[in-house]
Specification:
About 70% of the residues lie in helices and about 0% in strands. It is an all-alpha fold and about 375 residues long. The chain has one domain.
């Protein structure tokens, strides 16, 4: 039965991926080519090369370097170090730079899948293989590829961080986690979890990498650029999207409900809940996965493509050796909540955009922590 299901899912995955590939390719020749998040760090690369302000309004940077890129966003939301990533890409024509980035993301996705499959027993683990097939057909993965985002590379960095931590290589894990923090201050709840667990070396090295990245950019572009990002740009971008119903972060939901007190309360409540669920577990993997899930909504801004970082979590859950009836029912409910990615009706009914992904995250944390066996079968390292 499992093999038949796998064959069915595999065929559906091939069809879905073919459709997604066709859409990605055809959109390279439409006006949507220029409406990508990729524009931000591509223009930052141009600005770094040309000695311009990294955080000048995007229409101004576009007018100076790439006039056809003035249709998207107002200012780059990425930290200064991201300009170094955009620097080599800026030497290519925009369309070809986007293609190179797409290929890079696909490579990161393939490497992440390879590491995860090896960890969970290779091709003999059908539940994991089925989950991966469903994952790569999932709308958030397509959205990340389409927008030219960073979440798939971050997925690879987080998988490597998890692997290093499990092998006791906290220094290596700290460098990897620090790169994540430098590129996008994401997954910071993992650092709190590691500190509580007494594994200080990883978060300390991660903080040092973040500090070094900002120090490098301060030396390269001037301290004013770094200060401008953290004192002005971050708040400006948050103000733009805090009322967007597709932004399902704790901070934004709380702020939309009860202003600043609501934002602080909901963020702290979810953080405390996630830490309680994570630290009460004796199994390191369980705690790590809970905090990785919590990271998706403990950002000031959370979009649906942030969920691509949850691939190891999904595989961890389905690899569970025993399921209670309540867990099975909850799992089916969570699939129903999140399978569409986001609902088309959400533009008419904003609550459909906000609440399904938020409730999905809370439910997934609970499902992970409810494992009575502590997923002992996943504590092995398969090389």
């Amino acid at each position: 039965m499992r093999r038949k299901l796998f064959i069915f899912v595999l065929i559906a995955t091939v069809v879905a991926c073919a459709i997604s590939a066709w859409r990605l390719i055809t959109h390279l020749f439409t006006e949507y080519l220029y409406k990508r998040d990729f524009v931000q760090f591509y223009l930052m690369g141009h600005a770094l090369r040309g000695g311009a302000n990294l955080y000048a309004p995007i229409p101004k940077l576009a007018a100076q370097f790439e006039p056809h890129l003035n249709q998207w966003l107002e200012v780059s939301a990425y930290p200064p170090i991201v300009a170094i990533i955009g620097l080599p890409l800026s030497y290519l024509p925009y369309r070809w730079a986007l293609v190179v980035w797409l290929l890079f993301e696909l490579t990161c996705l393939a490497l992440s899948i390879n590491l995860i499959v090896k960890h969970f027993g290779g091709r003999s683990s059908l539940p994991v293989l089925i989950t991966i097939c469903m994952f790569i057909s999932w709308q958030p993965v397509y959205m990340d590829l389409y927008m030219g985002q960073f979440m798939i590379p971050i997925l690879l960095l987080l998988v490597l961080t998890w692997k290093a931590l499990r092998e006791g290589k906290d220094g290596q894990a700290g460098v990897l986690l620090g790169v994540v923090f430098a590129v996008k201050l994401y997954a910071w709840p993992l650092a709190l979890f590691l500190i509580i667990k007494g594994r200080w070396r990883c978060p300390m090295i991660a903080a040092a990498v973040l500090f070094a990245a900002n120090g490098l950019m301060a030396a390269w572009t001037g301290a004013a650029t770094v200060v401008d990002y953290y004192s002005r740009v971050g708040g400006f971008v948050l103000a733009q999207y805090v009322f967007d119903p597709f932004n399902f972060s704790c901070w934004s939901i709380g702020f939309r409900s009860a202003g600043l007190p609501g934002a602080i309360f909901l963020t702290l409540a979810v953080l405390v809940l996630s830490l309680l669920l994570a630290t009460r577990s004796k199994n390191f993997d369980t705690g790590f996965m809970v905090m990785l899930v919590a990271s998706t909504i403990l950002q000031p801004i959370s979009w649906i493509h942030y969920m691509v970082t949850l691939l190891p979590v999904f595989c961890f859950v389905v690899n569970r050796s025993e399921w209670e009836r309540l867990d099975f029912v909850l799992g089916l409910l969570l699939i129903a909540l999140i399978l569409p990615g986001f609902y088309k009706e959400a533009r008419t009914y904003p609550a459909i955009a906000t609440w399904p992904p938020f409730l999905f995250i809370l439910g997934l944390m609970w499902l992970i922590a409810r494992n009575p066996k502590e997923n002992q079968t996943t504590s092995r390292i398969v090389v």
